[in-house]
Amino acid sequence: MTLFSLAKKNIKGNFNHYFVYFVTLVFSMVIYYTFAALQHSENIQESIELSDTMRFMFGVSSVILILFVAVFVLYSNSFFTRKRKKEVGLYAILGLRKKTIAKMLFYENLMMGIIALVIGIILGTLLSKLFAMILVKLMGSTTEVDFGISAMAIIQTVIVFMVIILFTSVQGYRLIYRFKLIELFHAEKKGEPIPKVSPISAVIGVVLLVGSYWLILRPLPDDWTTEYLLRNDGVAFLALVIGTHLFFRSVTVYLLKLSQRNKSRYYRGTKLIETSQLLYRIRGNARTFTVIALLSAATISFFGATYGGYYSNEKSAKEVVPFSYSFLSKGPEFDSQVENIIEADDQHPIQAQLEIPVIQIEGTLSFQLDYDINPVKLISASTFNQAAKALNRDETVSLTGDEAAVIQPRFTEYTEATFKGESVTLQLDRGSRQLRLDHMVEGNVLPFDYPDFYVVVSHDVFAEIARQEAPLTYNVYEVENETTAQATSEKVNKLVGNDFQVSSSFYTEYKKGKEGNALTLFIYGFLGLVFLAATGSIIYFKQLTEANEATGHYEILRKIGVSKRDIRRSVKKQSLFVFGLPLTVGILHSCVILYFISNFISDLIGVNLMVPILTAIAVFIIIYTVYYAWTVNTYNRIVNR
Amino acid sequence: MKTVVEAKQIKKVYGSKGNVFSALEDIDLTVMEGEFVGIMGPSGAGKTTLLNILATIDEPTSGDIVIDGINVTKMTEEQLSAFRRDKLGFLFQDYHLLDTLTVEENVILPLALAKMNVKELERRVDEVADTFGIRDILKKYPYQISGGQKQRTAASRAIISNPSLILADEPTGALDSKSATDLLECLKDLNEHDKATILMVTHDAYAASYCNRVLFIKDGNIFTELVKGERSRKAFFNKVLDVLSALGGGAHDVI
């Protein structure tokens, strides 16, 4: 028998154990291939606004993906090799040289990797079209996806995964050399002591978790700085990580031990067996649980936040570019040229049309504000109210005399209290003019342009200042169905140039936002799926190893009168605990983190995150349920023969 | 006196057509209440197969087994589990203790599985702890105690549910002679004072000499039977040795 055929036989024989690993590996290859294909697809890039960003993002995310997959593959491999210590020991006793054994393991790993790679690429070419369609749909493009086989993506996927596979194969090869023959036969330790629980570390764990939640959830002070944020949430993050670890290491042990005290419940049916089994294993699983809980927390919260952004894109685009089209007037001829374009679009009839005069002028505030205000932009109250009405907004201002209202600068969180009782002094040609900042209104009427410091003044004051400083006039149009006005927007953009830091037309901003969010959503979504699949598969291995070690136990139990059904039920309960605990902790963490994110990222302020969070959590639970069912089934097959 | 075990024409055939091996040919066996019966025979004679079939862990190819008035060959897996839990006690060569449980928890396991109330359960533990002298080690884990202690723990577990029949498979096989004697004395006590019915498979003539009656099996058939009667244990031991040498094959692992 050649070494190759022995390796082949081993794969076949162990395929049951490898299956989930194999599926996960293939899955990550498919995702990697898709990312690479999208990165190189000119066809898709032509049809979207953000093509550069897209290439960059897919580049970065495939690197993250590959790092994660590398860790996963390495971990799984060392796991397999350790599990097969006995087998390796047997080969050694039979007189096979270490070198030969190592070579055999090397071939095994290589063969499996190559098979996975072939399947991964075949599935990748088939599925990436579907995934690309999902992306295009998310982005709201109408273009047909013509997305063939990407040679570049195939080459890239093959190279990257071959490197990983070769590396792990070599790692497996080296592992054999580190084993001592005597150890190989004692691979499964017997009589491991039951973990002792120190109440102190359990208490510290709880304190750290509660503390980090408190740090994250407490409202930001008004004058928060980046430094404050880094300190506060850095500490919170550290506490969360350590607290989570201690939670799994000590708190759960402590709780399980506590549950043993209640004898009338503990000594009832198979409860006794389950509790002691979990207690016995939980220490060894603490680190995995921690990683899984934190990883799922991060994935759920990022996914939730992005989904929230995607969800609320129209609203935030409307904030950044309030009217369908806004441009600076450059004389009647130019203006009517633009107007003709807008009027020519039958699909998007004009609902409202307005001229907004704005005075730009130097000014100083009566207090320190960490926002650049110059040049201050003045709008007359009557124009502001007209514009607000045209936009179907409820908020209006009524000002008399020297009263003025600040429009909340976009992407900031100033409140009326910030300005109340303060004033702004404007530098006019003939001396200065002081205005009282009595109010703050939300919702600007012109596209964003830094510094976004607009002050609404009364009609009379505006007229008075306008006599000294000539106002600029902006023409704005609001049209029906503005989210589809692609062609007209492109024409208008071309003609008017860059009047603002953002686009002159709502559609462009909306579409860019939608594409950007769709892209992140897509990437987080698929990265999250890979994370999830990998962690699920790691729990699966762990449970299976446990099952193999526990066959003796279950045999004893069957002999002394536990029915197969009861054993199955007991396996289910234990697996539920093992899958459910890190997931529950992860979900709790992510809710806290999301609460923080939604308060902090201005895009998400006021966005209802309920739907996206529930979606993300539901997806997590569904995938874990699949792995759970898989685990229970295999576990059962092993112990309930 | 009540009949505890009544087995008729038990056959066990392994393998399928072309490659058939018959482990038990045609065995009839009756055990009365309060008997301590030994089963001996050379390796491969079918001792353990017989025990497993009586223990309802294995099924006979044909034949009927009635234990405590119940025909076990007609029961479902579910019923058998409950039956084993309530009516049978087990003792194995390699103890079969769960190392995640303390000695105490191991002992009460059958009662916990039967969902007995805690008061009654603790009273029973208290009782058996003295019978087998494990009171001092109740809170320890199996890996912290010696082989003899482990087997006494297993024996406590076997009797805690007051089973109709205790089945022992080479219970002294892994013990040193002192521990083996202790265990056998305990079993004898249990048999004499509590009228426990015990069926023990063994290789060891010394262990067999503690029984009231010893059956010898050879090639799947009952070869002969020895009854202790009024003989001393020493005399019975010699008698057992005689039969074993006549039986052949197994003689080398007598002592």
TrEMBL record, chain A:
Protein's GO biological process: transmembrane transport
InterPro entries: ABC-4_Integral_Memb_Prot, ABC3_permease_C, ABC_permease_BceB-typ
Protein name: Putative ABC transport system permease protein
ABC3 transporter permease C-terminal domain residues: 60-177, 526-627
Membrane topology, record value: Multi-pass membrane protein
Localization of this protein: Cell membrane
Keyword Transmembrane assigned: yes
Pfam families noted in UniProt: FtsX (PF02687)
TrEMBL record, chain B:
Residue ranges of domain ABC transporter in the record: 5-244
GO CC terms in record: membrane protein complex
Family annotation (InterPro entries): AAA+_ATPase, ABC_transporter-like_ATP-bd, MacB-like_ATP-bd, P-loop_NTPase
Tagged with keyword Nucleotide-binding: yes
PROSITE patterns found in the cross-reference section: ABC_TRANSPORTER_2
Entry's transmembrane regions: none
Keyword Transport annotated: yes
Organism whose genome encodes this protein: Melghirimyces thermohalophilus
Pfam families assigned: ABC_tran
Keywords: ATP-binding, Nucleotide-binding, Transport
Family assignment from sequence similarity: Belongs to the ABC transporter superfamily.
Protein name per Swiss-Prot or TrEMBL: Putative ABC transport system ATP-binding protein
GO MF annotation terms: ATP binding; ATP hydrolysis activity; transmembrane transporter activity
CDD domains named in the record: ABC_MJ0796_LolCDE_FtsE
